[in-house]
Automatic annotation (TrEMBL), chain A:
InterPro entries: Asn/Gln-tRNA_amidoTrfase_suB/E (IPR017959), Asn/Gln-tRNA_Trfase_suB/E_cat (IPR006075), Asn/Gln_amidotransferase (IPR018027), Asn/Gln_tRNA_amidoTrase-B-like (IPR003789), GatB (IPR004413), GatB_C_1 (IPR042114), GatB_Yqey_C_2 (IPR023168), Gln-tRNA_amidoTrfase_suB_CS (IPR017958). It comes from the Bacteria. This is Aspartyl/glutamyl-tRNA(Asn/Gln) amidotransferase subunit B. Allows the formation of correctly charged Asn-tRNA(Asn) or Gln-tRNA(Gln) through the transamidation of misacylated Asp-tRNA(Asn) or Glu-tRNA(Gln) in organisms which lack either or both of asparaginyl-tRNA or glutaminyl-tRNA synthetases. The reaction takes place in the presence of glutamine and ATP through an activated phospho-Asp-tRNA(Asn) or phospho-Glu-tRNA(Gln).
UniProtKB/TrEMBL annotation, chain B:
Allows the formation of correctly charged Asn-tRNA(Asn) or Gln-tRNA(Gln) through the transamidation of misacylated Asp-tRNA(Asn) or Glu-tRNA(Gln) in organisms which lack either or both of asparaginyl-tRNA or glutaminyl-tRNA synthetases. The reaction takes place in the presence of glutamine and ATP through an activated phospho-Asp-tRNA(Asn) or phospho-Glu-tRNA(Gln). It catalyses: L-glutamyl-tRNA(Gln) + L-glutamine + ATP + H2O = L-glutaminyl-tRNA(Gln) + L-glutamate + ADP + phosphate + H(+); L-aspartyl-tRNA(Asn) + L-glutamine + ATP + H2O = L-asparaginyl-tRNA(Asn) + L-glutamate + ADP + phosphate + 2 H(+). Pfam families: GatC. Gene3D superfamilies: Glu-tRNAGln amidotransferase C subunit, N-terminal domain. GO terms for molecular function: ATP binding; glutaminyl-tRNA synthase (glutamine-hydrolyzing) activity. The gene is gatC. This is Aspartyl/glutamyl-tRNA(Asn/Gln) amidotransferase subunit C.
Automatic annotation (TrEMBL), chain C:
Heterotrimer of A, B and C subunits. Its EC number is 6.3.5.7. The keyword Ligase applies. The lineage of its organism: Bacteria, Bacillati, Bacillota, Clostridia, Lachnospirales. It comes from the Bacteria. One of its GO terms (biological process) is translation. Allows the formation of correctly charged Gln-tRNA(Gln) through the transamidation of misacylated Glu-tRNA(Gln) in organisms which lack glutaminyl-tRNA synthetase. The reaction takes place in the presence of glutamine and ATP through an activated gamma-phospho-Glu-tRNA(Gln). The keyword Nucleotide-binding applies. The gene is gatA. It is an enzyme of class 6 (ligase). It comes from Anaerosacchariphilus hominis. Gene3D superfamilies: Amidase signature (AS) domain (3.90.1300.10). One of its GO terms (cellular component) is glutamyl-tRNA(Gln) amidotransferase complex. It catalyses: L-glutamyl-tRNA(Gln) + L-glutamine + ATP + H2O = L-glutaminyl-tRNA(Gln) + L-glutamate + ADP + phosphate + H(+). This is Glutamyl-tRNA(Gln) amidotransferase subunit A. The active site is at 79 (charge relay system), 154 (charge relay system), 178 (acyl-ester intermediate).
Amino acid sequence: MSKQYETVIGLEVHVELATKTKIFCSCSTAFGGAPNTHTCPVCTGMPGSLPVLNKKVVEYAMAVGLATNCTITRHSKFDRKNYFYPDNPQNYQISQLYAPICRDGYVEIETETGSKKIGIHEIHMEEDAGKLIHDEWEDCSLVDYNRSGVPLIEIVSEPDMRSAEEVIAYLDKLRLIIQYLGASDCKLQEGSMRADVNLSVREVGAKEFGTRTEMKNLNSFKAIGRAIEGERQRQIELLKEGRQVIQETRRWDDNKESSHAMRSKEDAQDYRYFPEPDLVPIDISEEWLEEIKACQPELRTEKLKRYKEEFEIPEYDAQILTGSKQMADMFEAATAICKKPKKVSNWLMVETMRLLKEAGQEPEDMRFSPEHLAKLIELADAGTINSSVAKEVFEHIFHEDVDPEKYVEEKGLKTVNDEGALRETIERIVAANPQSVADYKGGKEKALGFLVGQTMKEMKGKANPGKVNEILKELLK
Amino acid sequence: MANIISDETIEYVGILAKLELSDEEKEAAKKDMGRMLDYIDKLNELDTAGVEPMSHVFPVSNVFREDQVENGDDREEMLANAPKVKDGMYMVPKTVE
Amino acid sequence: MEFREMTAAEIGQKIKAGEMTAVDAVKAALAEIKKQDEVLNSFVTVDEEGALKRAEEVQKSIDSGELTGPLAGVPIAIKDNMCTKGLKTTCSSKILYNFEPTYSAEAVLNLEKAGMVVIGKTNMDEFAMGSTTETSAFGVTRNPWNTEHVPGGSSGGSCAAVASGETPCALGSDTGGSIRQPSSFCGITGIKPTYGTVSRYGLIAYGSSLDQIGPVAKDVTDCALLLEAIASYDKKDSTSVKRESYDFTSALKDDVKGLRIGIPRDYFGEGLNPEVAAAVKTAAKVLEEKGAVVEEFDLSLVDYAIPAYYVIASAEASSNLARFDGVKYGYRTEEYEGLHNMYKKTRSEGFGPEVKRRIMLGSFVLSSGYYDAYYLKALRTKALIRQAFDRAFEKYDVILGPAAPTTAPKLGESLSDPLQMYLGDVYTISANLAGLPGICLPCGMDTKGLPIGLQLLGDCFKEEHIIRAAYAYECSRGRAAFEGKRD
């Protein structure tokens, strides 16, 4: 009988914080600048420069710690992690080893098998590295320090996960919490959220953990799933062959769907951490902690409950609306204006989701304003526009954030309720389509639909369809 | 000499420090380091049990910056110091295989 | 009086009185440099053109009444480990042979605010690692009193330049005695302020938790004036301390009545040259006669400062000097195969032997398995040393002793035995570990005609005590002879 193996997984998740400036200097963190234009002596490791800590970074880290049930370290410090690499301008990274800002937390995840607590060992603050661009032409690499010094938190979980499904549920949970806090946009693809997977296998029932490997370069949920499966298989194969798993860092290649060891003779992996002499400790007072607690926004679980109770939104819809902070913010803002939560929910659930899908976008990419959605709902409700015009106007709101009132006015899309004008048009249509009239009179109900369609076409879709029906029926009596 | 520094240790420290020593330098380094460590071992005469390691001399804490962009762009002046530059970036030997 | 004999304050007064212009002063300094520096080699870079241009601007501001300070128009030299915008800053190392900073150190900016004119950058031990200025990649600096001897280090260039009159004053930096020991060897006055008093922003770090910038000059008054100019709270340096007072000149009083001075018995043991011991004891007598309460006491832990220092300073240096890798600035080796080979060759060719020795030691003591035994042990020792000083300063305002166990050794005598050289820092190093201010000033000559230095240590933020004691001693001693034996 073959042995059964269990996979044991822990995660190191790096999250780029949404500060305006870098962690240790007042350079911008904005994306898209020309190479090395968001740099200064501090973040390029110029001799003589010194770091000064961005307060906002500490506050975001505290907020994430509180939202993940961590204990906040009252006397926290920075340490230097020493290693040579060109994306790291000082050849040390300022990080936290001995007194990280948060410890001993957990988040609860839901999977098909029920809910489970995933422990958080610690959260620490550190600086991001620059970007290396590989130049094939000159067979060299080029360094851009625009990202060097962008603040990161690293969330280190306990080895509490047992499957890719749990890993993804955990990442999703973290992503939502952090997005709701406004601490980061957490985009895996763009690298504002990155996960390294620590994985080992052991025989089912074994008490001791097996030797683990660390997998890097995972930049989508799919890659994470594939890498976990690949590494699990690789380790089981090794054990079955009676060989040993080596503790090492491996790099996942998602195109090849395989990984390779990153270790070389020059990587001693001995980081010689010591307390950063250029930065002073962080003392967190009771008052400061209370201040951060008081500013914690409503998180997803609370929102979900409130949407169901306060707005009578069904569970499924509430799940989707709270599935991203931007969606929830949009829902709440539009509802606050038009006081029609169900209608707002409907527009978001149906049309918005459809258009996002069409554009291959995420809710984070929504660019229209809640005021315009609310106004559109008012216009439709008042009968100023009919439902097909409303859908058309919404597409323009979605893409160009047009003001629906102005747009309807300018394009002349208001529903025509003027009985005289309608009657005149319909009379013309009836006169021009004797065959249809005869068909209808002969009992073919379908012919009426054709006449309604012709009328709507003539009126450029702006007619009130109820009214058209009514007048037609009267004329064809 | 109480501290005997092996060839492996010197090799290893050379990797950490990114220094390539000639054979002569290695021999000298083994001797120097051994002698320094013998001298440093004098600290073991002191009973430091219960003494908090002191990294900063003053109990200063909470020195912060506000999150406001202040830095401009002096890329060209900074790049002017670099040994090799291309397209506004620092050029280094290839970092991937 | 000749220019090279004038103090900074005297030059400042002459400029203020219109008897001399800032340009005259710079020209006089440049002339001295031309005359003497071929032999002394105090300077790595002399900024003739920049200094003259700047002097003209400064003179205009003096004439218009914008600049009124006591140091306006006075020339100054800067140790070559402080960044000066657009002016080569090398740390006397091949690895930074062509580095032009894009910004100036805060201390340098402060000097410019006071209207001073930077004339050049002074030689030093490579990255401030050394006690003789012989580890410089740009040649040794010679002691103006006897050019067969070293000027001390690591601020040997600054001290030799002041002693010879190439410049009236200079900035140095002190990590383990690098201002006080060369001041002693060169017969001039230098202050290492309380840690955090002068911003370290722009000082190329050696041991970040120990480094402090300070002035070297011909007398206590100049040092106090200069310290007042450079000391500031700087938001760019997180370890900068907001002091209650930045007034250092009010302490220039010839009055030590009631000042409590302690002399550590442990400073006068084996290894101290008897001539030095005698000169220092005589200086203590002078202060006692002027009304100070002088007594001997046991400081304790004196022998543990050097080993603790070399662990901490080397560890920090191994990390601080990691950035010199041939990527962003400075030297890169000509030929290399791949990244790590480029790093290793660049650093091995770019750094001198003493720097490599300390980087190796520092990397080792931080490496896996040794951190607790060496680094934490040293930090605990540092805490004990600080406590010993705290106890001493409960009883005394000033701790008096020698600055160095001997006068300046001959060139070439020290480097062959690094450990022996390190032991020469025994009196200065503990002030850096404990963050204390210290001043060194001349208190006599040995039979070879080399100056002997007196060191006064104060409690943290109590520069006023050591400045007062030093000034009172200086008033009795009289003007030190600035001119060396050399013709």
